[in-house]
Amino acid sequence: MLKRVYILILKSFLWPFISTFAVAVFILLMIPLIKYADDIFGKGLDYWVMARLIFYFCIQTTAGAIPLAILLANLMTFGNLGEKNELTALKSVGVSFQKLLIPVFIISIFLTWVTFQVNNKIIPYCNLKLYSLLYDVKQMKPAMEIKSGVFYNAIDGYSIRVIKKKPSDDKIKQIMIYNHSDFRGNNDVILADSGVMYKLPEYQYLKVVLFNGVVYSELPKKGGRSSMEKPNEFVRTWFEKCELMFDLSSFNLQRTKEELFAGNKSMLNVAQLSDTLGKMSANLLNQRNNYPGQIKVYYRFLPGDTSTHLPKTDSNFSYKGSLFGLFSPDEQRQIIKNALAQVRSAQSFTSVYGKIISQQEKDFRKIGIEYHFKYTMSVACILMFLIGAPLGAIVKKGGFGVPVIISMFFYILYYVLSIMGKKWAQEAIYTVPSGMWFGSILLLPIGLYFLYVAMNDRPLVNWTFLKKLFKG
């Protein structure tokens, strides 16, 4: 009997999980697409590059989509069982709620392991591919689009203006082209009445054929001692037909070596992050220990024997005043000047040294945050199971209505608490472990309470107890 029940629960769980996971990935995918929209769109990227970018973004969002899918699938599964009174029937024949949780709990444990492996191995690799590709896309020029009446300067060494141009036609009219390829300014200008403009195969070159025009060129003087003695030569050439070729290789995607990005924290796995944390911790400790020895350089005192400034009297002479008074006014001013210079130097050194240590501590916290993030997102799967399964049995509502609202509420709550904890960890208000586990620590008692209520068939809120409590 239990075997059939487990199969029923698994079938009820898998379909909501898969559908919710797909929807969650799609929704989370919109965040990076909107964020990098200006860098991606309008560059004339081919379909293969766009597909790779979207695929890498999808992989990046899986770690956040799996916990949400587990939460909603558990709510719907046990909500449907409760709504159809199947939970009550099973309990009446001796099947406890704990036993009903076993198949879903096993799947949640498996998905926790999957989430960790994705976070630890797949996402760092995809991040390396994604951000190296995204960097190269950002460096690309926008797709070539010459508009009527506007100078187009994206082609290296040239500035082109076309007065009349139809988007659906290759014909152009009233063309002006400035040639800056020789870095002599606006000394070469081409004017033409009409022409034809089209790209050659593979989009490596742009061919422009001009008709009925003139070329104005200002050539530099030869042998003159100054520009006033011998002006530049001016040449004017008429033509009926002129063909120009423009290199468009700068519009292509130029790939950068991925090794240059491999050291970023988002591209490291747990072992690499742990090794980096160890090295940074040792470096920080050395920096703090070296400070006293380095600051001593700025604490210098007067060399020599100050007793030479004492009045020469018999050996029974005693002086009870300040030693500073033994020096002449000029010497006193010089001593004060030197002391102030040393203090300023020590203050400047301490300020710079403090900023260096502060930046290293900030980098150390960032690596620690990334390290704990790989674990917190995995544990979130268990946490969402503890909240979703009991709560579904308590509310006894299936379908996509109430479960969706409840799951979104708890997921957003967990997300907000996690972001708050991460921010506090970044600002050193809390330690990195305390900040990163802040959301999990707060929601764990809630999940355990829901589990206790569902196991013992208790009401979610004990109104009688609350009334007695407030009445005193």
What's the short story on this structure?
By secondary structure, this protein is of the alpha+beta class. The protein is built from 11 helices and 5 strands.
Shape designation? flat
**What order do the strands of the largest sheet run in, or round the barrel if closed?**
1-2-3-4-5
Percentage beta strand? 5-15%
Question: Helical proportion?
Answer: 55-70%
Strands, total number: 5
Topology as a string of helices (H) and strands (E) = HHHHHEEEEEHHHHHH
Mean pLDDT: 80
Number of domains: 2
Q: Radius of gyration, rounded?
A: 37 Å
Q: Which stretches are low in confidence, meaning pLDDT under 50 for 5 or more residues running?
A: none
Largest sheet: 5 strands, antiparallel
Distance between the termini: 50 Å
SSE topology:
Elements: H1 2-35, H2 37-40, H3 47-83, H4 86-92, H5 97-139, E1 158-165, E2 171-179, E3 188-199, E4 205-219, E5 233-247, H6 270-295, H7 329-395, H8 402-426, H9 432-436, H10 438-456, H11 463-471
Antiparallel strand pairs: 1-2, 2-3, 3-4, 4-5
Helix pairs in contact: 1-3, 1-5, 3-5, 3-7, 3-8, 5-7, 6-7, 7-8, 7-10, 8-10
